[in-house]
């Protein structure tokens, strides 16, 4: 004693079921739950789902068929503004990140190896990635030594963030040059020290 | 709910009751109540007020002009019956029994005050409480039929597109944090410090980065003159020149001149391999 | 530097946001999240929501405004077949719970003692816990009498659950005026008793 259901009622019911279910609903699940007792043919259900897909084609959400069934999902183009509904605060930067950034700012262009030499500890790829993804540092070239390590420099975004127009607005660190012994020696040797100021 | 209750014991003919001016005569009912029915009865009521209301409605008494004698009698019969059957009665039922008995006795006393004063009607407080309870009993029923979530409707939700990623709020860095990080390095590296203390303009280092960046964009090859931006003035030219010298010295670039007086080119240094 | 957004984009974004959010979204929340940077006037947003309400008026789901904001929900007429999606879920509440909830809703803020007085029976801790755990009631203060009992009030979640925007959308109480003892007494004194019944 199957109940009758007209096309509009069928559409409403299938639509509501897919929206209300916590997970994608397959056609078999629709038949076994909300459509139980209505005797809706497979063809009719398919038509109904096609109709729903059309109805939502120009809307903010779309009816998608995934491996486990049908579900509504937001348009991919809207992901960026929708992201603001779920802001995630990332943790503060570690000391290592800040020291690396400071060294790149003052000693650019500089390789990761040179940073490690000065800091006296290894610099993880994660640190370099953090700074690169933030858009504060970038690779501006490669040092022509074995392994061709990347040469890091700060970006305009870095200056913008800290409200600087030029790097030389960073406070001078008189002692800083002393940290590169090899270089300091070289400079002394070639007698160009004076001219560098 | 009341309709589903078992028939109640009535041990005496009911008095005539007037409901909206209409006389109603209830006939005596069966005396016997099975004990388990009484238990169901107790569970059905939300306390003595609910039970009293049931009795009042069942016998079509007028709540405002409550026939205390009759209702007390009815109430007592049930209570006694339940006690005889050793049902554990909530204390509230016994308190109500005492209250009814008190009202009844006060009604028997000769009235001293003027009769039209409602406040001195010993029934007034009980009637008020019954009325009040009945209204909230009704409100609870009304609330229950309101369409509600998870029963009458369900929240409609859509999943997020596969390319969705939450907005990452990046940590703020204070300028002083950067400086203090640098100071730490300086302190830690004291041991490495060289006697020759060099002080270099940061603008030179910045310019070094810029030239490298430009070289990358130009496939590693630039005319010497292209490195200079004459609008920057003398100082800019000097900074650029120093930067090129420094880059050459660090073997990051090579300067190439194919013939005397020919154009000088700046070229990204290539490894020997 | 507000970005431009056309009416169709606005509709899609608001629609997607309400569908994707876990809880109802108020207009203020929409403005502060997905619409941030678009500079959409209050009037335009209201029009957009009205448009959405119209778009869905004949569908299996509807756009509703409850106390805490907008959400899509399935049509009440579909509840019976939809309930088959959750055979185990059918929350029923005892009369004791409903009476207590009604008293808190209509008489808030109210103490447990006052509820017991009106109901004529004690109110179990289990009942208060059920209502609190559902997020329908909360303690909003304490009555300054011995023991400082908690004063209970209903929450926005309570209104949301029953699809209400304000408390005054609750069904009216029968002859409520007659029930306020202080008021009733006053009225009695001035000889208005007859009119109270």
TrEMBL record, chains A, C:
The keyword Cell cycle applies. It comes from the Bacteria. It holds the Pfam family SMC_ScpB. The keyword Transferase does not apply. Keywords: Cell cycle, Cell division, Chromosome partition, Cytoplasm. GO terms for biological process: cell division; chromosome separation. This is Segregation and condensation protein B. It comes from Alishewanella jeotgali KCTC 22429.
Automatic annotation (TrEMBL), chain B:
One of its GO terms (cellular component) is cytoplasm. It is found in: Cytoplasm. GO terms for biological process: cell division; chromosome segregation; DNA replication. Pfam families: SMC_ScpA. Keywords: Cell cycle, Cell division, Chromosome partition, Cytoplasm. InterPro entries: ScpA, ScpA-like_C. Belongs to the ScpA family. Participates in chromosomal partition during cell division. May act via the formation of a condensin-like complex containing Smc and ScpB that pull DNA away from mid-cell into both cell halves. PANTHER family: SEGREGATION AND CONDENSATION PROTEIN A (PTHR33969). Component of a cohesin-like complex composed of ScpA, ScpB and the Smc homodimer, in which ScpA and ScpB bind to the head domain of Smc. The presence of the three proteins is required for the association of the complex with DNA. This is Segregation and condensation protein A.
């Amino acid at each position: 004693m199957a109940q009758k259901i007209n096309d509009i009622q069928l559409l409403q019911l299938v639509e509501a079921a897919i929206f209300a279910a916590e997970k994608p609903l397959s056609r078999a699940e629709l038949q076994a739950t909300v459509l139980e007792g209505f005797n809706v043919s497979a063809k009719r259900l398919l038509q109904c789902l096609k109709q729903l897909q059309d109805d939502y084609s120009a809307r903010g959400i779309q009816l998608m068929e995934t491996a486990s069934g049908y579900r509504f999902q937001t348009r991919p183009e809207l992901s960026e503004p929708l992201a603001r509904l779920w802001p995630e605060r990332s943790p503060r930067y570690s000391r290592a990140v800040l020291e690396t950034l400071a060294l790149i700012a003052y000693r650019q262009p500089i390789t990761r190896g040179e940073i490690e030499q000065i800091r006296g500890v290894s610099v993880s790829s994660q640190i370099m990635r953090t700074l690169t993804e933030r858009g504060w540092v970038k690779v501006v070239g490669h040092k022509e030594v074995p392994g061709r390590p990347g040469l890091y420099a700060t970006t305009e975004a870095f200056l913008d963030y800290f409200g600087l127009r030029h790097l030389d607005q960073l406070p001078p660190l008189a002692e800083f040059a002393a940290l590169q012994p090899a270089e300091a020696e070289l400079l002394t040797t070639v007698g160009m020290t004076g001219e560098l100021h | 709910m009341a309709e589903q209750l078992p028939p109640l014991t009535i041990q005496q003919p009911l008095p005539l009751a007037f409901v909206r001016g209409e006389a109603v005569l209830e006939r005596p009912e069966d005396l016997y109540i099975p004990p388990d029915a009484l238990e169901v009865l107790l569970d059905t009521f939300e306390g003595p007020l609910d039970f009293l209301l049931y009795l009042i409605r069942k016998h079509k008494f007028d709540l405002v002009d409550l026939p205390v004698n009759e209702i007390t009698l009815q109430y007592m019969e049930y209570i006694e019956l339940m006690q005889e059957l050793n049902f554990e009665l909530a204390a509230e039922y016994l308190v109500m029994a005492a209250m009814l008995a008190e009202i009844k006795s006060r009604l028997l006393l000769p009235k001293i005050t003027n009769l039209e004063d409602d406040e001195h009607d010993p029934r007034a407080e009980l009637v008020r409480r019954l009325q009040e309870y009945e209204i909230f009993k009704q409100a609870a029923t009304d609330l229950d039929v309101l369409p509600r979530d998870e029963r009458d409707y369900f929240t409609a939700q859509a999943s997020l597109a596969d390319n969705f990623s939450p907005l990452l709020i990046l940590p703020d860095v204070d300028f002083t944090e950067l400086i203090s990080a640098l100071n730490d390095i300086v302190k830690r590296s004291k041991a490495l410090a060289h006697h020759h203390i060099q002080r270099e303009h940061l603008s030179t280092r910045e310019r070094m980065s810029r030239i490298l960046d430009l070289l990358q964009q130009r496939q590693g090859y630039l005319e010497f003159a292209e490195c200079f931006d004459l609008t920057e003035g003398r100082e800019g030219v000097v900074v650029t020149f120093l930067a090129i010298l420094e880059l050459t010295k660090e073997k990051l670039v090579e300067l190439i001149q194919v013939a005397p007086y020919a154009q000088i080119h700046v070229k990204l240094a290539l490894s020997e391999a």
